[in-house]
Amino acid sequence: MAADLGELLVPYMPTIRVPRTGDRVFKSECAFSFDSPESEGGLYVCMNTFLGFGREHVERHYRKTGQSVYMHLKRHVKERNTGAAGCAIPRRKNGKVFLDLELNRDFNGEDFEYEDEAKLVIFPDHFEIPLPNIEELPALVTIACDAVLNAPSAYKKQEPESWDEEIQVSRHARSLRQLDNGVRIPPSGWKCQKCEMRENLWLNLTDGTVLCGKWFFDGSGGNGHALVHYKETKYPLAVKMDTITPDEADVYSFEEEEAVLDPHISDHLSHFGIDMLQMQTKTENGHHTENNSRPRVSEWEVIQESGMKLKAVFGSGYTGIKNLGNSCYVGTVIQVLFSIPDFQRMYVGNLQRIFDYSPLDPSQDFATQMAKLGHGLLSGLYSKPPMKSELIEQVMKEEYKHQQKGVSPRMMKSLISRGHPEFSSTRQQDAQEFLLHVINMVERNSAGSENPSDAFRFLVEERIQCCQSRRVRYNQRVDYCIQLPAPFEAATNREELLAYGAKRREAEENMRAPPEPVRARIPFTACLQAFTEPDNVPDFWSSALQAKSAGVKISRFATFPEYLILQIKKFTFGVDWVPKKIDVAIDVPDFLDLSRMRATGLQAGEQELPDLLPPIVLAEDTRDNSMGSADSPEIDEAAAMQLAEMGFPVEACRKAVYYTGNMGPEMAFNWIIAHMEEPDFAEPLTLPSMIDLGPSISDSPLGAPPLGNSPPEESIAILTSMGFPRTHSIQALKATNNNLERALDWIFIHPEEEEDSDVLSDMAATEPNGFSNANSHSNSTVSPDREAAGPRVKDGPGRYELFAFISHMGASTMSGHYVCHIKKEGRWVIYNDHKVCLSERPPKDLGYIYFYHRLSSS
């Protein structure tokens, strides 16, 4: 028999590989579906590529690649028998368990037993060889099978990877001396003992002093009293007050000059009367919420509708998404996107075509993984109601806890977040930032095909007016989301808020428990009004005056999208640069009419600003290298150093301060975040050189590409996917040093001419026809003629109906939990990770991101 098996495998030996270091073995999930070894048909792992395939997809891979040998993995899950007393009958062990798998079910290990089965399967005849079969198989095959069986999950290798350096245990932790000075730290009302600062506070673990931090050691703002205290006393360890949880706390060593671990932190804190277990409690979702932050507890209960008996729903469109650990921001965004017909049609409607034309490694193909995820959510295969017999048995046991299986977005998250410093981590993230990241990925991968993100795209008209000359300039830009401010001054309960603020300050001064919090109630109309108010343009350069002047900007809709995304600006930066949420309730309407916000363009009597450019910052001034210090730019070096101490390049910090007009570190920080992806981000700031500009842009050196290299193909694909011609996209990128944002602006003011010309025409001559259909009220998609002059938009009436919203619970985008509510078949449904239920009382006033669909004109 051994000889027969050896001869049988001889033709396939060249295709059988042993996994090497760096090879990922996908033995827990199919590349095209959510089948796993626990599925009815098990999972087939290719012995050459180590990709996993369900029973319905393994034949496709065999036909496409010719790979014939697969390892079939099957995990049998059985409920343990119970004795007369209702307890599980003791077992010596869980049968034969030899697969290193992540379970796809939330089973209690004490109630279930597992038995794993593995065998080699040779296609196309489906010849099966049970494993392990050491004596009868060739040595190479035995080694390969053993390596696959013992390989860790494809994602276990990735999860520990992050940009965070491994934190070491402090050498002072074990022998830390603590003074017996009777200091006891109250549960709230902390403030710096020297400057009364109430944020970014650090507790010295030797003498119990509470002092404010300094910029350099955690990227936070403060007056540095904690560091001064260390220099005076040499007491080495301090813990950040607002990071203490039952499990951990952020500890910094002044002597070692880095963040450290303190294995005895619980004992060290208890010395000053701080019980770590009482600092925070966990919600049912496993997320921390502070005990002294009662509004957050209420927020969690209201948004999740946790006080109500919600009815679970199952079937197509009612499939949950598992939380991988701080991945709820992914699940909520994906749920909303696949409730939109454009995404359903693109990825689920074209499922077979996408799968048939997928690359050899479908786990790394965006369209394949989007189609897989969309099919998993809409097919109903992973959201089945319990069988009647199961229900009767569970009711008899009084333990009815059936929840749907849901799908795991692990493969999709791994792909879409690859290379992103935040989304690739296991930390909580901002759902709005992830939404725009997904839209960008869709744009990038839709070149030459249907682009579902067209439904979100719209044009914004910006009217900029010079306050001194009263002249105006109209620009248009692409956007996907409207950010509405939440003006506190418009709160309908303002007196109540003022009274609460006074009581809170009094409680903090007297170190008493804070009063019952009050949530600001702001009318939605006030948010819209604040959005339409004129904004000051920082560092505005007037071409009419050829000097800096005061300028104001007003934004309006040049086109209305088919699906409108509204984000409430609930987050602001604290002095420690951590995004913090303001507690507001806004009466967001079900129906919305924005017709009055449509742009009108240049009005009669308005004079346009001349088409002149401000002084240009050249990469190198070749005309005069002998400029003295008198010509050096004025820069607030203190602000630049504060930013540099946060880890940003010094030259980038100096440029940020210069380009924001020395208006402080917060404005400069925002500039850094907006420009850190630019290729010259860390290049030194050079002196501006005045260039004699004529009335035509063709006389300016900006008309010629500053770099001889071709733009990145990825950037070209993004612009072409938005409807711009390839040649025009390349020209725009070359003219703006491959900066995508500036390239878009360049395209808008340089529409493609009918004749192919290498000479740039006057800006004023090209402006009028840039968006000739901007005021059209048609429901149809723009024509190809329009696409040649601008991005694809689906303009129409500005009347909308609310169909979904995403809500956030917690004090910051860096923590908390997300859920979403979606209106389906006339009823609201709450999607809370893998749990999907009918909503009884959707908290529309506490949402963070709102989604509207356009009403028809009929």
UniProtKB/TrEMBL annotation:
<feature type="active site" description="Nucleophile">
    <location>
        <position position="328"/>
    </location>
</feature>
<dbReference type="GO" id="GO:0008270">
    <property type="term" value="F:zinc ion binding"/>
</dbReference>
<dbReference type="InterPro" id="IPR013083">
    <property type="entry name" value="Znf_RING/FYVE/PHD"/>
</dbReference>
<dbReference type="InterPro" id="IPR038765">
    <property type="entry name" value="Papain-like_cys_pep_sf"/>
</dbReference>
<feature type="domain" description="UBA">
    <location>
        <begin position="634"/>
        <end position="675"/>
    </location>
</feature>
<feature type="domain" description="UBP-type">
    <location>
        <begin position="168"/>
        <end position="276"/>
    </location>
</feature>
<dbReference type="InterPro" id="IPR018200">
    <property type="entry name" value="USP_CS"/>
</dbReference>
<dbReference type="InterPro" id="IPR016652">
    <property type="entry name" value="Ubiquitinyl_hydrolase"/>
</dbReference>
<protein>
    <recommendedName>
        <fullName>Ubiquitin carboxyl-terminal hydrolase</fullName>
        <ecNumber>3.4.19.12</ecNumber>
    </recommendedName>
</protein>
<comment type="similarity">
    <text>Belongs to the peptidase C19 family.</text>
</comment>
<keyword id="KW-0072">Autophagy</keyword>
<dbReference type="InterPro" id="IPR015940">
    <property type="entry name" value="UBA"/>
</dbReference>
<feature type="domain" description="UBA">
    <location>
        <begin position="710"/>
        <end position="750"/>
    </location>
</feature>
<feature type="active site" description="Proton acceptor">
    <location>
        <position position="817"/>
    </location>
</feature>
<dbReference type="Pfam" id="PF02148">
    <property type="entry name" value="zf-UBP"/>
</dbReference>
<feature type="domain" description="USP">
    <location>
        <begin position="319"/>
        <end position="855"/>
    </location>
</feature>
<dbReference type="InterPro" id="IPR050185">
    <property type="entry name" value="Ub_carboxyl-term_hydrolase"/>
</dbReference>
<feature type="binding site">
    <location>
        <position position="212"/>
    </location>
    <ligand>
        <name>Zn(2+)</name>
    </ligand>
</feature>
<feature type="region of interest" description="Disordered">
    <location>
        <begin position="764"/>
        <end position="793"/>
    </location>
</feature>
<feature type="binding site">
    <location>
        <position position="225"/>
    </location>
    <ligand>
        <name>Zn(2+)</name>
    </ligand>
</feature>
<keyword id="KW-0788">Thiol protease</keyword>
<keyword id="KW-0863">Zinc-finger</keyword>
<dbReference type="Pfam" id="PF17807">
    <property type="entry name" value="zf-UBP_var"/>
</dbReference>
<dbReference type="GO" id="GO:0004843">
    <property type="term" value="F:cysteine-type deubiquitinase activity"/>
</dbReference>
<keyword id="KW-0645">Protease</keyword>
<feature type="binding site">
    <location>
        <position position="195"/>
    </location>
    <ligand>
        <name>Zn(2+)</name>
    </ligand>
</feature>
<feature type="compositionally biased region" description="Basic and acidic residues">
    <location>
        <begin position="784"/>
        <end position="793"/>
    </location>
</feature>
<dbReference type="Pfam" id="PF00443">
    <property type="entry name" value="UCH"/>
</dbReference>
<dbReference type="GO" id="GO:0016579">
    <property type="term" value="P:protein deubiquitination"/>
</dbReference>
<feature type="binding site">
    <location>
        <position position="192"/>
    </location>
    <ligand>
        <name>Zn(2+)</name>
    </ligand>
</feature>
<dbReference type="InterPro" id="IPR001607">
    <property type="entry name" value="Znf_UBP"/>
</dbReference>
<keyword id="KW-0677">Repeat</keyword>
<dbReference type="InterPro" id="IPR028889">
    <property type="entry name" value="USP"/>
</dbReference>
<dbReference type="GO" id="GO:0006508">
    <property type="term" value="P:proteolysis"/>
</dbReference>
<keyword id="KW-0862">Zinc</keyword>
<keyword id="KW-0378">Hydrolase</keyword>
<dbReference type="Pfam" id="PF00627">
    <property type="entry name" value="UBA"/>
</dbReference>
<keyword id="KW-0479">Metal-binding</keyword>
<dbReference type="InterPro" id="IPR009060">
    <property type="entry name" value="UBA-like_sf"/>
</dbReference>
<feature type="compositionally biased region" description="Polar residues">
    <location>
        <begin position="769"/>
        <end position="783"/>
    </location>
</feature>
<dbReference type="InterPro" id="IPR041432">
    <property type="entry name" value="UBP13_Znf-UBP_var"/>
</dbReference>
<dbReference type="GO" id="GO:0006914">
    <property type="term" value="P:autophagy"/>
</dbReference>
